[in-house]
Write a structure and sequence with these properties.
By secondary structure, the protein is mainly α. The chain has eight helices and no strands. The N and C termini lie far apart (about 50 Å).
Length: about 140
């Protein structure tokens, strides 16, 4: 299972339980994999956040994606908080704004705004960030 793609310990746990392995055995196996560093939830979460930023997602979207992939919510919040401090999600919002501005060039101002705000909301960007980007790129 680890050969196909990196997995969070939570996702691996769910997968093994679904295959019928006992809870005690699954916990023991996961602890052993963590001990020998075959599973590293933090490194996995950091990698997933970079992937999310590449898809122009915001903090909220990245946290939801990490939780969906089996990363502990607390760790997801922590890693996303660090990424936010480094400006990763801000950069993603600006890239999204530039993309929407290109695609909607020549359309009515309200249409451009609506499409940008819809895309930004779906991707989990904060309203404050979207407001700054929209004011500069779609004015």
């Amino acid at each position: 299972m680890l050969d196909a793609a990196p997995r969070a310990s939570g996702a691996l746990r769910e997968r093994l339980l679904a295959k019928g392995y006992g809870e005690a055995i699954v916990d023991e196996v996961i602890e052993r994999l963590i001990r020998v560093q075959l599973i590293d939830d933090r490194a996995y979460a950091e990698s997933a956040v970079r992937y999310c930023a590449g898809r122009m997602m915001g903090r909220r979207g990245a946290v939801l994606e990490l939780a969906r992939k089996g990363v502990d919510r607390k760790l997801a919040e922590q890693v996303c908080g660090e990424a936010e401090q480094n400006g990763i999600f801000e950069d993603a919002a600006w890239e999204l704004g530039r993309q929407i501005a290109r695609k909607t060039h020549g359309l009515d101002h309200q249409v451009r705004q609506r499409r940008f705000w819809s895309a930004g909301g779906r991707k989990g960007h904060s309203p404050e960030t979207l407001r700054r980007v929209a004011a500069e790129l779609l004015a």
